[in-house]
Design goal:
With 90 residues, this protein is mainly α. The protein is built from five helices and no strands. 69% of the residues lie in helices and 0% in strands. The longest helix has 17 residues, at 69-85. Pfam families: PPR.
C-alpha cells in the first residue's frame, strides 16, 4: 500500500507527531486541492512554526496550482516584506 504525502501528513497529525519543514514542503508539493492545502497551511500557522523559504515556495506553488491568486498574493507580499526588513528590498 502506497500513501501519498497528504495522507501521511494526516496520519502524523492523528498520531500527534510534530511535522517539520521537510514534511510540510513534501505535503504541500503533492496537494492539488485548495481545501486540503488551506488545512495544511492552517496547521502550519496554528503550530507556531515559521516556514522556511522552501515551505513558502511550496505554499505559493500550491495556491497557484489551485487557482487561488488571493492567498498567493498575500504570501508574496509577506516574503517581500521580510526581505525588505533585512535590507534585501531590491
Amino acid at each position: 500500500m502506497s500513501l501519498q504525502a497528504p495522507e501521511l501528513f494526516a496520519k502524523m497529525v492523528k498520531l500527534q507527531v510534530q511535522p517539520d519543514q521537510f514534511t510540510f514542503s513534501s505535503c504541500l508539493s503533492d496537494i492539488a486541492s485548495l481545501k486540503r492545502g488551506k488545512q495544511v497551511h492552517a496547521f502550519l500557522v496554528n503550530a507556531g512554526l515559521r516556514p522556511n523559504a522552501i515551505v513558502m515556495s511550496c505554499l505559493i506553488d500550491m495556491y497557484s496550482k489551485c487557482g487561488s491568486c488571493k492567498e498567493e498574493q498575500v504570501l508574496w507580499n509577506t516574503m517581500l516584506s521580510a526581505l525588505a526588513q533585512h535590507g534585501m528590498g531590491n
